[in-house]
Amino acid sequence: MSRAPRGTSRRAGRRYADPLQAGIRLFRLSGRLSGEEAHGSLLPRTVLRKLQQDWAAWWERNRRRLPPRTGHPAASRKYLQGYGAAAGRDTGRYSLFPTGKTVGCVISVMNECQSLGRQLDELEKLPFEEVIVVVNGSSDDSYDIARRHPVRADVVHFEEPLGYDVGRAVGARLSRSDVVLFLDGDMCIPAPQLLPFIEAAARGADVVLNPVSRLLPAFSQRDAVSCFKQFLNVCLERSDLEADSLTAVPHALSRRAIRTIGASALAVPPLAQARAIRCGLKIVSSPRVVNVLKANRIRTCNVGSGNPVERLIIGDHLEALHEMMEKYGPRLGFADFGRKRHVLGRPVRTGAQDASSG
Amino acid sequence: MIQRGNAARRKSRAAGSRPAPIRNAVQPKVSVVVPAENEKRTIARVIEEARSVHPDTEVIVVANGSSDGTASIASRMGAYVIRYPEPLGHDVGRAIGAMAAGGDILLFTDADIVIPAARLIPFVHAIEQGFDIALNRYQGAVRKSYVHPTVLAKKALNLMLSAPELGASSLTAVPHAISRKALEEIGAALLAVPPKAQAVAASLGLRFTQAGYVNVGRMNARKSSIRHNRVKRLILGDHLEAMDWWIRQAGNPRADYPDLGRARERVNDV
User: Fold this and answer.
1) Which pTM value belongs to this model?
2) Fewer CB near the terminus (10 Å): N or C of chain B?
3) d(CA B194, CA B238)
């Protein structure tokens, strides 16, 4: 029996592409890790990014030549194993993306030193093109932790607090990647739970939302924020999204989405959501939910009905509705079918300033 | 208990006989407004129950686009009938009836559901006790995880009006009652867009309450699904119109809801 050609393996008579060999080959082609990179057991981000680039090209060329039922996770693991074996490093902690698109991460932080370090540890396991940490109004170690972490993030520092969600907008404005994942600094989401968002964006979605609707109780027990998120989606003819919204993290946006929505609008997430829907962007919910509800740090300002954060988010939704109404009319196209208002004598106009007596 | 009352009434009435005609009070305390299109099956009983909510009641039927004899039946029953040859559309009949009403208390109900007088009286009582708007406590099907869009809209409106205790109660639904003061301050015409009337009422500081629980969803099952969808969309649009009004009268896009000091302009500094 003749040998299978280099870079392939023979199974059941067919020549399959072999990701393990591809990983080994990359290490051999790229040469030994340079002096600085040779220290420690972790891979520097520059190396990880190169791995990702090479892998993405290989995956694109060879994905159909793999044994049946070999998915991206298994194939990419083999590739990493090959590289790791050749380089003498443990690559088991890393994951790769199934796309040649560049993927960045924006994480907005106020006083989150406890969770920030752990979250950055998780981000280090993924081949992000850029990791942007927006530190604002921190009185703890958040800035130092961000600056010093081996993930080598781009850290943007504001002395004063920017307010809710503004950090996301700042990060979006600075980002250059094709796909951007948004996180808040107050919780640590493990790397595997971030992958579905990136994968959905890689498949062409402009907006990938966290499907938190699945975690909500029966309607009568839902809070005001969930009610408004769902109401906005229904009014914009996306009732399929239920209560999924850019208000929640994590979510991913394509470059096109950031450009279309406008980075500034991301500071008011419901407004960004409304623009995204109305501009015809491709909006999906991730196949896997990340339970941010239980992980959200309880603060005095975000518990109890009528709390300040709840009121902020209601105001955000009104702001979003207002912009939509300015563009598309006070009823957003939901006609009052057959209503003969003119018989009432005094006009009951749809949008004009009504006198207080109606 | 109510069931027994109805059954007793039915039994005491000879088979095939109709409800006895009513006589409207000359100086009514309560005006019951009943918009009606084609409801010959139920209109007589609706009028009978409506008349019984108070000794001094007038029943006003706004027959619009009736082609099945509803208007004649209502007239024979002794109600004050306002006729329109064409259908006026949703809720317009309420406004017309309200304009003609003479009572201090206005009760609104539909012509296709027979609500026993005993279930309507609490709404009248609430207005007598000093409330301006007495709503139905019925919230729609809320125990499931499916969210009905109109229930969602009603709840969102009440949240916006800072009245979360009202849940999904709404002037959209019947039965409800309003005071004459509320009628004059809101203006009868606005009752044609009930959520907007609700928003205006809230802005004027009128007093709301949930007067009673009448499960109109159960009673109301038989609409066609096309019409059902149109009505759903109409109600959604009404709530948006109400929110638009609320935002405008506040004079700012957030209707005075806080921003908690967002430094939006800093986004352009990077």
Assistant:
1) 0.90
2) N
3) 7
